[in-house]
Amino acid sequence: MFGRQGNDTIEAGDGAPDRADGGNDADTCHGDQIDELFGCEALTLAPTTTTTTTTTSPDRTAPECKVISASGNRAKGLITFRASCDEAAALGAEAIGRLRRLSSGALASRVGDVTLGSKSARVAANGSVRVTLRVSRRYRRALPRRGRVRLVLRAMDALGNQSAVSRFVRMR
Question: pTM score, two decimals?
Fold first, then answer.
């Protein structure tokens, strides 16, 4: 920047390094400590502000979830459990049962590992949530009395990190 003849006011206090010459006459310059200012009769220096940029690495850890308690009621076809996670996550629960053979009157058409029901929920960071999962009616009678059902809990946080935990539930 260059001030011509006459009284000039030069504004160079923008945080970037500048070079300014006021020229002849009574000139006023406003600048930073990092500026090079020449020929200024009145000089005002502003302190430089250093901006530090912190780069945060993206969250790459999956939410750590656990099933606190679980119970199953075969007659009503309900599986109730309480789960907690260390960070906010979307939960997807799935009840998987193993059907060995079909009993008389069962409407199930499959044998082996079968998804009996599923449910989704959301949990807050360091919070817990109670979820009730309903076993479809067609598979209730096909479950053995006092049989075990595998409960698979999948969690996904806001950045897409996923984890899964599995637990067996006795159907009473």
Answer: 0.62
